[in-house]
Design brief:
disordered C terminus, 5-stranded antiparallel beta sheet, single chain, 60% helix, Four Helix Bundle (Hemerythrin (Met), subunit A)
């Protein structure tokens, strides 16, 4: 009965979305206030109905209702409760329901927080949001019904993909969807403004907080996915340029460009056309990512296996949404002329350079992602585009972004003084070059990765400090005055500085782990010790634990986790195991003294007959010791891979700091209160007759 109520709520939400898409849009066109007031009510009703539908599906997973096809295909009665809940979105249909629920959440938030918006603009924005909802809810109802029943329910389910039975799944998809779907707000604001035929600084100010929130969630979601791949897949890497990884990275790059472009549109009434285009492209790349994940055109541990018919449906949604928005953009382009002007040397120009570099880097990733598909479609030949291509083509653009960033922040608006800005950065440049030169000499010139990457991180972080010193008039005003000026800085400025500092930390971690990682692969028997990077690793024993054994294993405690480990530890696995495991116990020593006990696992999930690898990681601020237990050998030994990964945690620490910067900016009072109504806007609207 609860399942049927959930199905009914989904259908009713689709009908409400249709009303929300049509009635307010007509009301805005005719100036009918009563019709426009339908939008916030419908947005709230749609959120409630989709929450009921999602709750009904979650209940079916929790109670293991195998009469529901989705539950039977993606759950099992012996699965831990955490994975029964997270299994709701560990499949195509359930994740799509979460997708539209988050879409409705953002629509309701616009209705609630958008009371300072002009009535017509708010109605159009909510109508466009509803159009997106109509498309995806229709996709669910007609091709991907999560509530479909089975005539003959099985005794038990087929279980969830073992790779997804991990605490990281409780965080990664929801955060990623909050970012993906959150970009729909910028898209809706852009399309609504194009329909209205008016883009001004107030519009840019309204768009910025929604884009910032989506970018912040997307940052956390991508970082969690990277960390999941790092510790769960057992490959020892943190980024593989997988097509689905790229699908989330491309909108992140465009959203970053949009944030910077919207600043110019708000402050200088310039780049309006470019800002609107970026708002369209950011969500368009999110839709492209949805197509890549759900169409079945690629094979990935991240992708949902779906039939091509569903891919055609999503392709039709893409064609209408992206094609319609770009067509409207082309029609309205003459009305988006910039009013503000600025000199070639100015903060605006630096932001334009930033935009171009970020956008081109996103296009490079896009070409590398789809090229194998196009090559196979056009020629029938299978082409592989791997990490070497992306590292060679993408890295130069990010290096240029890092080089321009500190200079741009010290340039004045409208007309800047480049010599003065470079003069302020001279000590930072000297320090960065000194660090790079020292690392080059210590590395005997073997690789540019560490000198270039760590030198850039010093340059970016030093630029942040130099800008704060400039804003505080450090050494030119008294200490009390400098502290007062820093205290009175807007939170948006503090957020920007924190986010840029986070980028510097991530660059540092990436460069360090890429240049200084140490790897050892060998066969070890119990009692043998391996030396790696100044550490001693002893294989104490390997034992087999059956299905039903408890997750809590004595003697497997490691040192305090850092990075995202503390977050995942809150949701660590408990209760009986639903898999067989070969548990390898290791002791890590430094100078003969025990440092930590590590437990690496080789698991076998009997329901799906699928093996997985669980790495043992002793994580610290300066290094990770990463151990993987491989296959047993004929002589009684075990294949063991071990790594020393310097400063690995700084990659994800930087991502957290970047997201924190976004959160600090969102607490700025100007974003909480909202912009005033546009000057010259109609004082009222004519009620519908």
């Amino acid at each position: 009965m609860i399942v049927e109520l959930g199905h009914f709520a989904l259908i009713l939400a689709l009908l409400v979305a249709v009303v929300q898409a049509v009635v307010p849009l007509a009301g805005a066109a005719r100036g009918w206030a009563e019709w426009m007031r339908v939008a916030p009510v419908a947005a709230a009703a749609q959120l409630v109905l989709l929450a009921l539908a999602f709750g009904a599906l979650t209940h079916a997973f929790v109670v293991s209702d195998f009469s529901v096809r989705l539950v039977a295909a993606n759950s099992h009665s012996a699965k831990p409760m955490l994975y029964k809940v997270t299994g709701v979105w560990g499949n195509h249909e359930g994740s799509l329901l979460l997708w539209v629920l988050i879409l409705a959440l953002f629509g309701a938030m616009i209705a609630w927080r958008g009371r300072n918006l002009p009535a017509a603009l708010a109605a159009r924005v909510l109508a466009v949001q509803a159009m997106i909802g109509v498309a995806f809810m229709a996709f669910m109802v007609f091709t991907s019904n999560p509530f479909e029943r089975l005539a003959v329910p099985p005794v038990d389910g087929q279980d969830l993909n073992p790779l997804l039975q991990d605490p990281g799944l409780a965080f990664h998809p929801p955060f990623l969807y909050l970012g993906y779907v959150g970009l729909s707000t910028a898209f809706s604001f852009a399309v609504a403004a194009l329909i209205e035929g008016r883009v001004d600084p107030a519009w840019a100010r309204w768009v910025r907080p929604w884009t910032l929130a989506a970018w912040m969630f997307l940052t956390v979601g991508i970082a969690l996915g990277s960390y999941w791949a790092y510790y769960e897949l057992g490959w020892g890497g943190w980024w593989f340029w997988d097509p689905v990884e790229n699908a989330s990275f491309m909108p992140w790059l465009i959203a970053a460009a949009l944030l910077h472009s919207a600043i110019v549109a708000e402050k200088r009434d310039s780049l309006k056309s470019w800002t609107v285009l970026l708002a369209i492209l950011a969500f368009s790349f999110s839709l492209i990512g949805t197509f890549i994940v759900r169409s079945g055109i690629i094979t990935s541990v991240h992708a949902f296996a779906s039939d091509p018919a569903r891919g055609v449906f999503i392709l039709a949604i893409l064609a209408v949404a992206i094609g319609g928005a770009l067509g409207l953009y082309a029609w309205r382009a003459p009305l988006l002329a910039a009013r503000g002007v600025f000199a070639p040397v100015s903060r605006e120009s630096a932001l334009v350079i930033n935009n171009v570099l970020l956008t081109v880097s996103a296009l490079v990733v896009f070409i590398g992602t789809i090229w194998p598909l196009l090559a196979e479609f056009l020629t029938g030949a299978k082409v592989s585009v791997g990490p070497p291509f992306f590292e060679l083509t993408f890295t130069p653009f990010i290096v240029l972004v890092a080089l321009v960033l500190p200079v741009g922040t010290l340039l004045a608006w409208k007309r800047g003084n480049l010599a003065r800005a470079l003069g302020r950065l001279a000590p930072v440049a000297a320090l960065a070059l000194a660090v790079a030169g020292l690392l080059w000499s210590l590395g005997t010139g073997r690789s540019l990765i560490a000198p270039l990457g760590i030198g850039l991180s010093v340059w970016v972080l030093g630029g942040v400090l130099a800008e704060l010193a400039e804003r505080a008039r450090l050494m030119r005003a008294g200490p009390a005055e400098s502290l007062r000026r820093l205290w009175n800085l807007p939170r948006a400025d503090w957020g920007k500085s924190v986010a840029h500092a986070g980028l510097a930390l991530s660059i540092f971690g990436i460069a360090a782990i890429s240049a200084w990682e140490t790897e050892d692969i060998r066969v070890m028997r119990p009692g043998e010790t391996a030396e790696i990077g100044g550490w001693s690793l002893t294989l104490d024993s390997v034992e087999r634990l059956p299905v039903g054994a408890d997750f809590d294993i004595p003697g497997c405690a490691t040192s305090s986790p850092t990075g995202f480990g503390f977050l995942l530890a809150l949701f660590r696995e408990t209760g009986p195991r639903n898999f067989i495991t070969d548990l390898g116990r290791f002791t890590l020593r430094r100078n003969g003294e025990p440092v930590a006990g590590l437990c690496a696992e080789k698991r076998l999930y009997p329901v799906q007959r699928m093996p997985t690898t669980e790495a043992a990681i002793d994580s610290g601020w300066t290094r990770d010791i990463y151990v993987v237990l491989g296959d047993p050998q004929q002589d009684g030994g075990w294949a063991v891979r071990s790594y020393v990964k310097p400063f690995a945690v700084w990659i994800w620490l930087g991502a957290l700091v970047m997201a924190a910067g976004g959160l600090i900016s969102l607490t700025d009072r100007r974003y909480r209160v909202g912009a005033a109504r546009r000057a010259g806007a109609p004082a009222g609207a004519v009620a519908a007759e």
